Amino acid sequence: QVPLKPGRSLMDWIRLTKSGKDLTGLKGRLVEVTEDELSKHNKKEDCWICIRGFVYNVTPYMEYHPGGEDELMRAAGTDGTDLFDQVHRWVNYESMLKECLVGRMAVKPIAAPKANILMTLLFAGVLPEKKVLASSAKELSPRIHNKIVILVVLSKLLTLSLVFKSSNYDWFQTDSLITVVIYTKQKDMNAELVIVDCQDKQLRGEIIMDDHSYLVEVDLEHAVLEDVAVNIAEKVGKVEIILSKKDNIHWKMLGQPREGHNTFIKCTDRGLFYRKCKLVSKTEVTHDTKLFCLMLPKGTHLRVPTGQHVYLKQVIAGTEVVKPYTPVLPFLPLDFQEPPHHDGVHIYLMIKIYSHGLFTQALDHLQIGDYISVSNPEGNFKKSHVQTSEDLLLLAGGTGFTPMVKLLNFALTEVSCLRTVKLIFFNKTEDDILWRNQLEQLALKDERFEVQFVLSQPSKEWVGKQGKISSSLLSEFVKRSRRDSKVLICICGPAPFTEQGVQYLKDLGYSQEEIHAFTA
Ligand code: FAD
Ligand code: NAP
């Protein structure tokens, strides 16, 4: 992120897009753009970029781009889809840039989600609707496998790094139930890897397998009740999605396949899916930070894994705005006998409300009972990093504390080889420290855990540590409990805090593998 000039905030941009000003310079016309034409518009004062086959004139947006003009210019006059997906595929550019739309590419560039298209085409051709959803899918298996072979050959030809683990699905019924079974053949399948949404006769079941996702997506033939149950046979990787029929009638088919049905593609090639969640409570944590409790719809099965975030989406002044937030626990459990019981229904978010913040101001104005869209989880943190560590060090700045909450709990509850867990928590003032009491209680309760608060703008009364993240401060606190102990250091906070912290840690001799930085 770069500092933007005054009058160049996201809200200012939204206002400009609503002003009726001609932002494309084409007086409302849409044109077909050739690659040759696109490449000519490669200067700051005349800059076109193609994203997923649509071309935008981004010159008017330059000064409003939070990542800066130079970052935007990297894609000037070209297809910026891959670059966009790498940096922020979650940003809703269609909504943000709709007034900058110049037109479509004359020939669709290949950089659009390749695997997605490939899989959709293949499965569309391979599995005619009625056959896909026939009540006995057994007969389909050989056909699917044939096509998997073709797919693998094709994907190799196209050098797509697709490893297909021959997942498949089936469905059956009783008088009152419909059960969809997905055979992932993946060991260690667990509830966090299965995301199900069943609303308004639409079923969407997504299974995460490493960095790929398998999807069952169907318009159901008949209505079902709101509740959905998910059973997982972890060892064999069998997932059952159980729906209750609204009427006790015999279903001839499961339903009609939707666009993404029966596809197995990279997670990053799948669009983010949102469901509406109800705000059930809002509790003060500090003077400016609140704990929001959201309730998932009845037909949703979703567990956000440790270290991952979700995206919230709100329509602000007619434009869809999306921001990431990291779910926490309702409180820090002090009893580590068992993994925390997840009620499966609530998502807790600890969010700082900025007085000039576009999204957080809108969030703060939500009333109990209002709805907000919540996405599927994302993030590249791997729990396995913690599972093999002996010393865990957590460096948090402000709300950068949020990923540490579940991480701390996971480490103290489920990682037996961990000997020390230390949180170094950087804040401006004492009043800004999140869950100070709970952290201190936890340190008293569990001798493996230690917390150190560091303030950058302390009052005169503060007798604790003061300063900012620095090499000397880190060398004082970040230590291995034994000379050769396995260490993991996780860091999260304002972007410059995280960047500097990582650099200091490297200067102190910690390797890249020993550091995990939470970023966007
Ligand atoms: P903005 O409108 O973006 O502004 C925020 C503040 O910064 C305002 O005071 C504004 O004036 C100032 N500002 C904004 N842009 C600039 C700029 N370019 N130059 C100078 N000042 C600027 N936050 C949480 O509270 N809890 C979480 O759990 C959480 N999880 C996150 C997870 C991830 C992966 C990431 C990347 C961020 C997370 N955040 C979290 C931050 C969150 O996504 C938002 O950025 C934050 O809520 C601010 O949004 P906003 O629209 O209200 O503020
Ligand atoms: P804050 O209160 O402004 O700052 C927290 C501490 O960090 C303060 O001590 C502050 O010191 C210090 N700090 C701020 N900028 C710094 C810099 N450039 N160099 C060194 N130290 C710096 O923080 P916040 O408002 O809560 O913001 C938290 C940030 O964490 C947000 O940017 C949010 O996006 C990010 N976050 C990221 C994730 C993720 O997963 N990626 C999750 C949650 C939050 P001074 O300001 O006094 O210098």
TrEMBL record:
Cofactor(s) essential for the protein: FAD
Catalytic EC class: oxidoreductase
An annotated Gene Ontology molecular function: heme binding
Alphabetical GO biological process terms: superoxide metabolic process
Domain FAD-binding FR-type: residue ranges: 272-384
Transmembrane regions listed in the UniProt entry: none
Record's GO cellular component terms: endoplasmic reticulum
Reactions catalysed, as given in the entry: 2 Fe(III)-[cytochrome b5] + NADH = 2 Fe(II)-[cytochrome b5] + NAD(+) + H(+)
Sequence ranges assigned to domain Cytochrome b5 heme-binding in this UniProt record: 30-106
Record bears the keyword Metal-binding: yes
Keyword Secreted assigned: no
UniProt-listed SUPFAM superfamilies: Cytochrome b5-like heme/steroid binding domain, Ferredoxin reductase-like, C-terminal NADP-linked domain, HSP20-like chaperones, Riboflavin synthase domain-like
Subcellular location: Endoplasmic reticulum
Keywords (A to Z) from UniProt: Endoplasmic reticulum, FAD, Flavoprotein, Heme, Iron, Metal-binding, NAD, Oxidoreductase
Pfam families registered for this protein in UniProt: CS (PF04969), Cyt-b5 (PF00173), FAD_binding_6 (PF00970), NAD_binding_1 (PF00175)
Its EC number(s): 1.6.2.2
Domain CS: 164-255
PANTHER family for this protein: CYTOCHROME B5 REDUCTASE 4, CYTOCHROME B5 REDUCTASE 4 FAMILY MEMBER
Homology family: Belongs to the flavoprotein pyridine nucleotide cytochrome reductase family.
Name assigned to this protein: Cytochrome b5 reductase 4
Organism from which the protein derives: Illadopsis cleaveri (blackcap illadopsis)
